[in-house]
Amino acid sequence: MLKLDNLTADVGEGDGRKTILNGLSLEVPAGEVHAIMGPNGAGKSTLSYVLTGREGYEATSGTATLNGEDLLEMEPDERAAAGIFLSFQYPVEIPGVPVMTFVRAAINAQRKTRGEEEISAPDFIKKAREIGQKLNIDAEMLKRPVNVGFSGGEKKRLEIFQMMMMEPRFAILDETDSGLDIDALKTVADGVNALRSEDRGMLVITHYQRLLDHIQPDRVHVLAKGRIVKSGGPELALQLEKEGYDGILGEVA
């Protein structure tokens, strides 16, 4: 599925250019959910941006492949069509564009790139209603401009709605639990768990154990100074919760 080998990446331009990822290696097989945890500035969000092709985030060495395909050679839209999905830590507002219009356009753009037929309006509406009910998203919310006037919890639920509608091959969730109350957290986690499948991989980036109480990861990785310094099972997240990052980083120093 996703394989990163000695990935190094810079952020910024000119004199402000800075290396954030330092030889990061990671493999997430199909059918597994992996969690990445780490202190602020470790490179967690940078990793998600490099994989999805955000401007200003440049891989300088190493490789990143999805099912053997070179992600670093693809444009951002090509990566999306290949099945990469990113749930943002801070979802942006898109004034004037209704949620339903935005999501259907995104789905059909990906289908066109893959040479597939567009999703029909009846099929799209039926699917949107079914997924909306699972995430406590009503029809009125789907008519509103994307994220405009939405609460933090509504924005995060909408991100999961988009993910469930698009059914990506590989999903990256960048601190989706940030700012969520317990009810919203459970709703988001239920949506993520509903997408677990043998042919899909997920990478959950988080600071806290509480999300992993609801999304049980197969593996947990600790990221520090741009590289993976320790990996383990779900118990590693519990150890982090108990000892903090200083305790773990002291072990591997």
Automatic annotation (TrEMBL):
Residues 2-250 form the ABC transporter domain. InterPro entries: ABC_transporter-like_ATP-bd (IPR003439), FeS-cluster_ATPase_SufC (IPR010230), P-loop_NTPase (IPR027417). It holds the Pfam family ABC_tran. The gene is sufC. The keyword Plastid does not apply. Belongs to the ABC transporter superfamily. Ycf16 family. GO terms for molecular function: ATP binding; ATP hydrolysis activity. Transmembrane segments: none annotated. This is Fe-S cluster assembly ATPase SufC. Keywords: ATP-binding, Nucleotide-binding. It comes from Henriciella algicola. Gene3D superfamilies: P-loop containing nucleotide triphosphate hydrolases. The keyword RNA-binding does not apply.
